[in-house]
Fold these 3 entries.
Entry 1:
Amino acid sequence: MLLRIKFVTQIGIKPWGIFLLFIVKIIAAIAIGWINNKYYPLNDYWGLNKEGFLEYKLLISNPLAYFKDITTSHYVDPYGNFFNTVDSYWNDLRTNIGIKLLAISNIIARGNYYINSLIFNFFGFLGYIALFKVFIHCYAHKKKAVIFGCFLLPSTLFFTSGVNKDLFIFTLLAFYSYALYFILNDRYTIKRLLLLLLSAVFILLIRNFLFVAIIPSTIGLILSSNRKFHPAIAFFGIYFLACITLLFIDINCTDFQPLGIISQRQNDFLQLPTAGSQLSMNLLQPTLKSFIINLPDAINHGFFRPFIWDEGNIFMLLLSIELFFYQGLLLFMFFCKETYDKKTNPIIWFGLSISIFMWLIIGFVIPNIGAIVRYKSLFLPFLIVPILCNISTEKFERIKRIM
């Protein structure tokens, strides 16, 4: 318990500041719960909470069945189809992990969504703290920018505050980044190693495509952290080799075809009921030619949507304005870029490579703007913090005086 308190308090933010940041997160948690309950009756958040309460009843009535059924598969191929979204034990497991945890939380909450949300957000807030510790170690002189980029990005704050897999994934990725970074840059400890391994395992089980992304990024970080390789060379080189390897496997292995898995994932999403913010997409074929043809649309969807003029409600408009603001920040950074004596910290390349990979996959697979924004939001801090911290205050003030 004392270690957890130290983890939260020893970050260079005063206790009242930590408290206020946590209150902001709880407000976001209440907001996402209330909005979804009022306007989207069939949402994942309240549905998962309901399933969690049913699982709680199983826990107290038959604890053996509670622990046993998470390993039970009812499919013809019991433990195959690891990357599939239908007829797959592993796809069900992504949700079942959250339901099992909710059952434990319901020992206190008794099915109350908002109490469960409070409990889960205690855990989620630790992920924010972990990410802050990484970035403040890189940008010690840019504390305010790091606080804003780690704790206060609207869409990230909103979508990682619900009782949903997004909260878990963001927190696990933050824990993984924290453990890996400080193992390489501070010292190796058993606790950090366990945190790294547990985070990686749960990322693999809950969102396997993200696990695929962190493997080459981790190798790139290790290679560039010893200063023998420039980060750009290390990360581009590793991802290039990874792509070549996956293409080789796709062509020569009939049992595991990466392009086929991605195209099947897109097809599964297209089979879902049409949403109000549905995008028109070409059906991906499991060929390199099809992926190249659809690459411009994937970049458009993954990196630039929603546009301000896209149809939607006021909520979608606010999300598009937020994205437009970030794009403006990126352009502004090039005019007011900070000048450093040393090269960019490799952890920045680590976050950028994972984010770009995942945004590209999202662009290829997801046909719904609302879902695109939600999935993209998990990676925004890895992109926005470096942008904010690379804007020179002195150059900015100089431009203001000229204007």
Entry 2:
Amino acid sequence: MPYLVEHRLGEVFLGPAELPLVTGERYEPDLFVVPLADGRRPTLPLGTTKPILVCENLSPGSSRHDRITKRRAFQRNGVPDYWIVDGDAEAFEVGHPDDERPAIIDQRFIWSPAGAAAPFELDVADFFASVADGAPPA
């Protein structure tokens, strides 16, 4: 959140919040970021939108749906970044619209969204360690 505010990139929405996509599909991702509209924060209910980031926390019951159905839907809708957080593997699966397969990131994660003056960087091992002990990541 501090990164998004600092770079004035968008507003974070946490599930359950409905995300209506350009194709008419609707999903309730665990987290998504909608860009600012004319410098203003978007409000709920959202109209049709193109998020800059969608993120899912993988669970055994959602694995196939998140990795196949949702990934393809977000690709069809041109969502620039789709992240799946896999706590068991302690890795992020990162996908983009033209990717055949997601990249598996388990060390240093760097996100460079359009419009940001500097990238967002995350040490993946530190992130998962902080989640396990409840402390915020470094």
Entry 3:
Amino acid sequence: MFPDPLSAPRSFDPAPARDPVYVKRRLVDGRLVDLRCVDVLGKTFALRGRFVRTAALEDEWFDDLEDPEAAVRELRGRLRRPPDILSFWQRPPEVEPRFPYPHEWEELAVLPIESYERWWTTRIKARVRNQIRKAERDGLVVREVDFDDHFVRGMTAIFNESPVRQGRPFWHYGKSFETVREQFSAFVHRETMIGAYLDGRMIGFVMLANAGRFGLTTQVLSSLAHRDKAPSNALIAKAVEACASRGLRHLVYFHWGDDSLAEFKRRCGFEPVRTPRYFVPLTRKGRLAIACGLHRGWKALLPAPVKDALKRARRRWYARSGR
């Protein structure tokens, strides 16, 4: 049995001195959006959704919700219109459920790191090692760099190489140097930049964030014209080395999947790791939404065969259109 947030009395001030909700500009899915946020217990929660509103930590990859019961009380008590659902998860490597709330599983791509040498000798196949060695022989140089104008120009050139990547429109295509610099400079305080260079020109890069418990690849992108140099493999190798040197025992490459990117992750030593995500209803609407499966959005309601068919159709459409 889990605690029912709806049974707890709600302390509500009908005329608070000020509305605690404010708007914050954030980069989401490649574009700047206005997020409605509220600060609770010293942490920032983003409020998303229209019909069903969900509250979640704004930077949940980098922050933990240690006291969800207190967060429930604050969210229900401080807002005129509280969110319908509180969503939070446990960051790896802590993946055993700690809290007595209903949860679902999220599957992440996680690479355990004991040392760079052990990753090189035991976690990757000979094919990947040979690709990295060949890239070095061909003159590829991979190194940690600063987020300066030279790096941003390289990013911009790679972003604008193609409007389509992995069978769908690419978020960052068409952005100017100034836009790229402005949008990505907000994160450099917690990120290490890694560039892959061929004859002095950047043909790939990684933005490696330090999330405390693990390293997180917030951007991994390579030039389509230089796929034969395997820059992405070499960049992951450098990211593993950077994590090992900083004492980060895991490298996370966002979510696992069943596409070609998942196969690349597997070849580089990543493995699927499940972590619990909790959905706590704060209103009766939230409870109904969870019961009906609406808390995950309409895409999650589609059967897997339907989603696969839609993805194939999208890839064919972009292939025929030449975009």
